Amino acid sequence: MRMSVLFSFLALASGVGVAGMGNAAVLSLDVQHFSFSDYPIAGRAARDAMLGTHVLSMEDFEHQGPAREFVTGTGSDIAQQSFDTNTVGNFSMTGSQGSGGTVTNGGPLNPVTNHGVGAYLRDQNTYGRTNTTAGGSFHLDSNDVQNMAWNVALAGDRMFDRLVFNIFDAADVGSTFSILVDGITYFTSAGQRMNGEVSLVTIVFAHKVRATSILFQNTIHNDGFGIDDIAIGITPPIPVPLPAGGMLLIMSLGCLAALKRLLYAGRVQAGQV
Length: 273
Hints:
Elements: E1 2-8, E2 26-34, H1 39-51, E3 55-59, E4 68-69, E5 71-72, E6 79-80, E7 83-84, E8 90-94, H2 101-104, E9 120-122, E10 139-141, E11 147-153, E12 160-168, E13 177-181, E14 184-188, E15 198-209, E16 211-218, E17 226-233, H3 244-269
Antiparallel strand pairs: 1-2, 2-15, 3-17, 4-9, 5-6, 7-8, 8-11, 9-10, 10-17, 11-16, 12-15, 12-17, 13-14, 13-16
């Protein structure tokens, strides 16, 4: 099952002026929904089409293990810790603390103590949240915390204008799920979604940017979601056609070269060379 929602915004129409630091004007945000069983074929084909050929950095979390919650401190001083991927920026958690089965169930879901405070790097299915990488096992899980913030940036301060990633299992137990880019809401889920649904998200910016801030926002906590298979890219440059004057110059030079060859051949026939 596949559904697609496309939101396109002109800078002036959406209230976004000329983009500056921390204000990346979004040209379009596309969300395509797939059931988990449909994603391996239809979803990955759609993802490849959205990616294009100029991919600058990718993150599938397969080399970020071991599985763990990102927290700092001990006892009552436990707090969420930002997770810096070194590839696509960093993630942090905000809003109400997680307290659902994802956190409290224990056993294989939580092989070590889970505080429900930080994002959780997981290597197995957790209530419909699971890896979407072919042959992989890891994904980044919201751990039932209400919101996830993603500060997008590339090493070397490189510029980009396209993000493609999978969000899965969002808004399946009562929350309304939204995607905000630099504080502006560009997508809000409609009604309760399917358990385990994979949402392929593509964000295209109106111009190249060095950084942007994305917030995955829930209206309640304990409605966990995951993110995987992130790619950051840039639109290939469009070849600039040679001006008409330039073409005339090239043709003129070609004619001069041909005339020179003809004159030289004539002199050879006349015995002058």
